[in-house]
Predict the structure of 9224_t:CDS:1.
Amino acid sequence: MSNIYDNVPGGSLNLKGDSGTPKKIKKKKKKTQKDKEKLKSYAKELMSDDATSSEPKPIRVVTKTEAELKFEAIQKKRLEEKVEKAARRSHKERVAELNRKLEEMTEHYDIPKVIRCV
């Protein structure tokens, strides 16, 4: 009877994509006092370089193209028209229009009546 189970592998099942070995979790390295001091000294150097440099850094000004300006103008105009259109009708008129649309809709979601023919 023991020869039936001789070629069955033993051990636990492995998940798909799992290599079978447990993954080692890396611990985060804590910052030491030396690291903090190095960062502080580096920051001081950067600050002193900025103050002592006689050459001003160029400032990049972002300008928009003509197409972008036209696009923004059209968007603004459309938004104003939309607000104007919404402000023309009162709430009562909007509710009445919605009710009218709902009445005109077909009721194809309703369960149809089934007539039994015997």
